[in-house]
Every structure is written in structure tokens, then in C-alpha cells.
Amino acid sequence: ETVVNRIAAGEIIHRPANALKELIENSLDAGSTNIQITIKDGGLKLLQIQDNGHGIRREDMAIVCERFTTSKLKSFEDLSNISTYGFRGEALASITHVAHVTITTKTADSNCAYRAHYSDGILVPPKPGVSAEPKPCAGNNGTQITAEDLFYNVPARRKAMKNFAEEYNQIMDIVNRYAIHNAGVSFTCKKQGSNQADINTLTTGSTVDNIRQVYGVNTASELLEINKEYKKLEVKLKGYISNANYSLKKMVLLLFVNHRAVENSTLKKMIESVYSSLLPKHTYPFLYLSLEINPKNVDVNVHPTKREVLFLHEDKIIGRICDAIQENLACANS
Ligand code: ADP
Ligand code: MG
């Protein structure tokens, strides 16, 4: 059974950045306004996330890492109406099947924090001969989750992850996206032992401030704001795009659907063709696009951690997005 679970876990957690994405979404679901991430060896040795969210109750600590444990679905009906990020209770369980996990957490109504260690979905003692029960300890309100030695028990996967710098880039890509999409939440991410964070956004920072910090788009005038609603399609579109005078060495498309960072290759291709006639050769645009779609119209059968997302009326919606981009660019340059 453990082997089956480990294979299932491998489907969800391909690399450190996948694990971190799930952990960030959990912290956001818990209402956090401050998220601090520490990484060692591209996340393979250490992935740690500290938040100031609502915490996990002592009595739930034994089960949070079991498969299908979720506090986010009240009824089966909810499955077709998912508004939070997570919905299957598989992420934490999966991580415990491929790493050593420690959780330290405190709810506001508890007078101390509790710490527990997990492996293969269950509580395990920190060392042989001691109890596996969560232990009281000092700590602030919120949750700290530490995943160590990722893929220690999947040698082939571990071997494939030789390039720590590349894994760290993937991690930063995820942190940057979520930081930009969640102005009002401060994010920091650094390598363990470094006193310099590689991103450090403020709770008071705006979306534009965060885009500037991460992508260096210099003035607000280089970014055009998009804010549209398509009532018939039940879609809201918000975001910022660079104007045609601003160009990057490769296209940056930060796409969110219902607040989850996703990819959509059709949309990407269409956007490339919109800009191709506008930008000089070998220069590329920046786009941050956030779509809110009636959850009923988003395909929930695609696995929650697959980044490619499908939605109903996709062609029409993509058409509207491209129209909006063209309209904004035309306005800015007239
Ligand atoms: P899901 O997010 O789909 O519910 P997860 O496996 O990601 O499943 O998390 C399992 C449960 O653990 C969550 O439903 C939540 O109750 C709890 N949890 C996980 N991370 C946190 C966190 N940072 N703060 C508070 N609760 C958390
Ligand atoms: Mg989750």
C-alpha cells in the first residue's frame, strides 16, 4: 500500500516547486497575510514555509496528512462549486510519502503551539522510543511546515534532480506568481543561511509594486490595466499587461484561474500572435491575467495539481481576452 501511495504521490509532486505551490495555497486558504519560505539545495534538502494563518487544531493534527483529509469540502455538492484552491485533501499526504514532514502549528485559541512529525501519511515519533503524539512547544499563531530530504525514498526521481539552481528558479517562479497575485500578503523567499531574501513583498504593496519588484517593469505607465466583465460568459478578467514599448527577452505570462496559477497553451499561442505584429523581433511582452470563472465552468476532472486548465466556452473567452489586450494597446498608443 505504501508503494502505491508513493507512486500516487509522485503523480502530484514532480519536483520541489510542485510541493511548494500546494503549501503556499494551503497558507493562503488559511487566511495568512505573511508567508516566509526558506529553501536549501533547490528545495530537495529543505522546503520550509511559515505562515500566520488560522493554524491547525491539536485534535486535527493526527489526520491532516492522511489522504483525502480536507477541511474545505462541506458536502459532495461542493465538488462542483469549488472556490478554495485545494479540494481533494491529497497534497499534504502526498508530500509525507516522499519527504520527512514536520508541522508546528498554533490556533489563536490555544495557549501553546504543537509540533508533530509525519511519514507516509501518519504521525511518526521524532526518534525511536518516544511518542508520536503532537508535543506542546512555543510558537506564534499560524503554521510552519518543513519538508526535508524530498524523494529520499524515490532514488530515480532524486537522481533526476541534480540541478539545484534550476529547481530554485522553478520555486522562485511560483513564489513570484503568488506574490503578484496576492498583493496584501507579504511573501519572502530565501536560501537557508542567506541573509538576503530573493523576494520580499510588503502587505502594503500593490500589484504594480510587486510586478515592478519582480520583473523590473519600471514605471506604472509601462503597464496597462485590464478590468473587464463578460456577464453572459460569467467571466471576470483583471490584470496588467506591458505596452508595446516595453519588451522582455522572453514572454512572461502569469495566468490565474480562480486564484490558482495555471497554464493554458491555447491562450498562450493566441497572445503570442497578438503581440507578434506589435513588437520588434526577439522582444516579448509581460502579462499578468486573472480570470474568475463560474466554478461550474472550470473542468474539475483535470487533476488539481496539473497546471494546464480547461474551461467551458474556452474559444470565446480566449477571443475576448485577445480583444481586450488589443483594445488596451491601441488606446495606449493612440
Ligand atoms: P486540501 O488543501 O485539499 O484540503 P491538503 O492536503 O492540501 O488538502 O491539506 C489538508 C488539510 O490540512 C487542509 O484542508 C487544512 O485543513 C489543513 N492545512 C494544511 N495546511 C494548512 C495551513 N498552512 N494552515 C492551516 N491548515 C492547514
Ligand atoms: Mg491544499
UniProtKB/TrEMBL annotation:
<protein>
    <submittedName>
        <fullName>7962_t:CDS:1</fullName>
    </submittedName>
</protein>
<feature type="domain" description="DNA mismatch repair protein S5">
    <location>
        <begin position="211"/>
        <end position="330"/>
    </location>
</feature>
<comment type="similarity">
    <text>Belongs to the DNA mismatch repair MutL/HexB family.</text>
</comment>
